[in-house]
Structures are given as structure tokens and as C-alpha cells.
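Progress note, sequence design subtask.
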């Protein structure tokens, strides 16, 4: 994959971000994920709210993506925000099953798993029920980016992700959303972001 060209406005934005919070002590991939989430939201509180898997786990997930592991998004807004690769998103085709207690987002997770199988990177930025459904399936993901937003079920579903033992990126509070979820996976899709020899402003 070729190196990404960074626009001067983006470089200046990261310079200002780093002037307000020193991230130089973070391992490269951890730093990339945290900074991209903060950059996408302009919310410095995410630095204290995020719960990010160990660097070795992130590197394994990044290597899986580089080798072609599928990306599954819970909603089309997340899929649209993943800029380097096509994502699988089946929410448009899915149908809710109220009698079974299955929301459309949860049904979409089932459909996507049948399609991609185990070892995918799952990116959930909207629906807590999608994350809840994923946790009860035998998905064996490379990584779960679980950043759904909302006052009902969002914080609880993210806590359940952390308790599950699955490799994940989440946050403690109710906030989240499609933009920050997409930002987190984008951080893993650019090889220059986790090259230990390149941590300058040019490699964002």
C-alpha cells in the first residue's frame, strides 16, 4: 500500500492536538487510534475515555487487515467513513424480528458473519444491539471496534465487550458514533501510522 498524502490542514490540526495533549509516550498504533478518534470528534476527553487493546493486539489486527481481513460495519455511515477499503454492511438487507427480540442491526450482524466468517475486523459505531449480538456469536474477530453511541445500551454494550475478553477498542461513556468508529479503523489501515521509525507530523 502506498503512503498516504497528508493535507497541510490535517497536519496543522494534529500539531494543535498534540500541543494540547502530549501523546508521544504512547506506542505507535495506540497513539494512532487515540489521536484519530480525538481528531474526528474534536473531543480531548476521549484520551481518558478510550479503552484500547494492547499494542500487540492492534498490530495483529493491522497485519490481518493488510493481509485482506474483511471489515464489517454496523451501519452505512461507518462503512462510508472507512476510506481505504470497502466494508461489508448488511443493515440495508436485514430485517428485524421483534418476536425473537432481534433488531435490524443485530440481524445484519448475523448476515455479515455468515458472509465473512471468522477473523474479520468489526466496526460498530451506531447500534448497541449490533455489538450485543456480535458478542453472543462465534465470530472470533481479529478486532472489535465497539464505539456505539446512545443513552440506552451503549455504555452497557461496551462494558460487555471489555468483559468478553475479545480484542477490542471501546470507551467507557455513552458517547461514540460512526465518525469515531471509522476513525479508529482508519488508523490501522495506513502502514506508515505504525512504523516505529516514522512518528513525525508528516505521518498522520
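Output:
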Amino acid at each position: 500500500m502506498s503512503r498516504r498524502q497528508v493535507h497541510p490542514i490535517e497536519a496543522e490540526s494534529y500539531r494543535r492536538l498534540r500541543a494540547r495533549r502530549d501523546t508521544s509516550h504512547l506506542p505507535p498504533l495506540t497513539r494512532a487510534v487515540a489521536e484519530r478518534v480525538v481528531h474526528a470528534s474534536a473531543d480531548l476527553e476521549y484520551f481518558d475515555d478510550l479503552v484500547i487493546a494492547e499494542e500487540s493486539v492492534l498490530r495483529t489486527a493491522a497485519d490481518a487487515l493488510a493481509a485482506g481481513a474483511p471489515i464489517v460495519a454496523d451501519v452505512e455511515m461507518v462503512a462510508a467513513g472507512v476510506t481505504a477499503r470497502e466494508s461489508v454492511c448488511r443493515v440495508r438487507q436485514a430485517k428485524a424480528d421483534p418476536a425473537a427480540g432481534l433488531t435490524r442491526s443485530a440481524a445484519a450482524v448475523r448476515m455479515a458473519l455468515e458472509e465473512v466468517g471468522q477473523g474479520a475486523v468489526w466496526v460498530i459505531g451506531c447500534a448497541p444491539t449490533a455489538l450485543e449480538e456480535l458478542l453472543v456469536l462465534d465470530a472470533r474477530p481479529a478486532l472489535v471496534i465497539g464505539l456505539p453511541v446512545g443513552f440506552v445500551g451503549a455504555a452497557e454494550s461496551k462494558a460487555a465487550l471489555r468483559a468478553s475478553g475479545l480484542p477490542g477498542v471501546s470507551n467507557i461513556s455513552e458517547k461514540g458514533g460512526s465518525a469515531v468508529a471509522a476513525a479508529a479503523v482508519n488508523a490501522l489501515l495506513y502502514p506508515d501510522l505504525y512504523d516505529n521509525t516514522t512518528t513525525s507530523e508528516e505521518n498522520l
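Residues 196-204 have pLDDT under 50 and may be disordered. Work on this subtask will continue into the next period as scheduled.
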